[in-house]
Amino acid sequence: MEGAEAEEREWAAVARDLLALGYEGFSGSASLGTSCPDFRALCARLAAELATLGALERQREEGTEALSAGSVPEEEFLRQLAGLLRELHCPDRKLCGGNCGASLQEPGVRLRLLRFLCSEVQAARLLRLQSRLDPSPEQSGVEGAEEGSGLVQEMVLTLQALGLPRPMPGTPASQLLRDLHAKIVELLPSLPAGSLKPLLSYPLDAPRWEALESLYQSLRDQYCCRRCLLLKRLDLTTSAFHWSDRAEAQGEAMKAVLIPIREALTPESDVSIAHVLAARADLSRLVPATSKTARRGTCCAIHKVLMGSVPDRGGRPNELEAPMPSWQSRREDRGGQKAGRQCWGRKKKK
To answer: Where are the residues of the annotated region Disordered (predicted)?
Structure first.
């Protein structure tokens, strides 16, 4: 009974979402399955709005319908639906699995399908509204991006690592991403087995996301504190070079070299949770600093220079003996009386 009540509440929530989006008359027939024409029409209308809002790149380029709601076989509808979900990068494994038709026979899976399509329509509407409110003109691809921006730098490094040429001006972002995907798929078989295994292998639910965010914030604050300390030490060290007499003549030249380097060093860290999610398992392998592999990149000629004899500066308390007091002869004082003795005398009578 509890499961049935929970399912009814979920279907009621989907019906409210559909009404909020302006889709009326579908709430009663949405749970009948892919063989129902009303269910197909609902999915087709949601997909058509996504294509109109620009969320479907393939349909916009080819000019075809995302889903056919007419008299098409059920197998064709399921094939189109699977392609639509792949293009939208649906995270549900049952919906994007090999047998989408068998999965949609379950009411809960159909519920997740409608909720996913509704959320995509809501997001597409918000993005369209934001683009209308933004006075700056829309630019496709990488046009208009600053040459020194982080996005362009990351893209250039990615292209260099994959051996791809730099794209021509006006190349759409979708075409560039497809080229990157094709090149990565081509290079994946040449990698050793297990090289792309993620470091974070557990699925993240809401409590784990909160714990990860809390841990990230704590480490970020601690790293910022330590980096502030190191930067303060750097500032004090560089300021000491300006104390000499020679620095008076070379002060401006020193500032011209040091100031650009110092301004690039900020206490804030650019490491985010996205780097944790993108980390691979080989990042956790600890290589000893004295191993042959590590020494290939750190060895230099200075390591072969032998130091000569240096003066012994001590610093070993265990080799020192405790000082003992020395005995001295008693001094004579007070007219022949020996110091340290108490003199006794008679009291005078009053």
So the answer is: 312-350
Q: Dihedral of the CA atoms 51, 56, 57, 63 (nearest 10)?
A: -40
Amino acid at 232: K
Secondary structure of 81-93 in the HEC alphabet? HHHHHHHCCCCCC
What's the pTM?
A: 0.41
Q: What residue ranges do the domains of the chain occupy?
A: 2-133, 152-190, 206-291
Q: What is the mean pLDDT of each run of 10 residues along the chain (350 residues)?
A: 67 80 66 72 84 71 59 77 83 74 75 85 82 53 50 80 81 83 86 78 84 91 93 91 81 86 88 84 74 76 80 76 71 52 50
In eight-state DSSP terms, residue 238 is H
Whole-angstrom distance, CA of residue 156 vs CA of residue 145:
13
CA-closest candidate to residue 65, choices 50, 86, 82, 85: 50
